[in-house]
Amino acid sequence: MPAAGDGAPCAAARRRRPCTASSDVVSTDFEQTLSTDLGAIPALADAFAEWAEEAGVAAGTVFQVNLALEELITNVILHGLGPGAPGRISLRVRRQDDVLEMELRDDAPPFDPFQLPPPVLTQGIEEREVGGLGVHFVRTLMDEWHYAREDGHNLVRLRKVLEAAP
């Protein structure tokens, strides 16, 4: 298999490391599968940050993506599957030119997080109900978000346009 950066086309369909094809376009995928352990989220965030740095993603974007993913995964574990319960959550991130495309798939009962109403942000902290900001963060930080139920799984697709290099 050609090494990244040697100018040869990339033979692998899925890689955790950037692979530079002859056109000098970086083609990358990041994939992880999680259990229903909240303690696994920081390791996922670290692994994604390492991959994203190698893929040339700005630190601010890495923070935003990690925050959005943490909120969605936490919701799946706490409200969908249950902490420690059987179930899987899989994440796939692909860089396509100046866009990150993310797919978060889980086998929890059907639930579209984007059908939740936006939180009321005009109330004081004492009057607000606890919770409800996670999906708001996702809507605010990501450029596109979609939900689908496919083959017995919840599928959330996110897109984030990358910042232009300075």
UniProtKB/TrEMBL annotation:
One GO MF term: ATP binding
Keywords, in A-Z order: ATP-binding, Kinase, Nucleotide-binding, Serine/threonine-protein kinase, Transferase
Superkingdom, natural source: Bacteria
Signal peptide: none
InterPro entries documented for this protein: Anti-sigma-factor_SerPK, HATPase_C_sf, HATPase_dom
Domain (Histidine kinase/HSP90-like ATPase): residue spans on this chain: 35-160
Record's protein name: ATP-binding protein
Organism: Pseudothauera rhizosphaerae
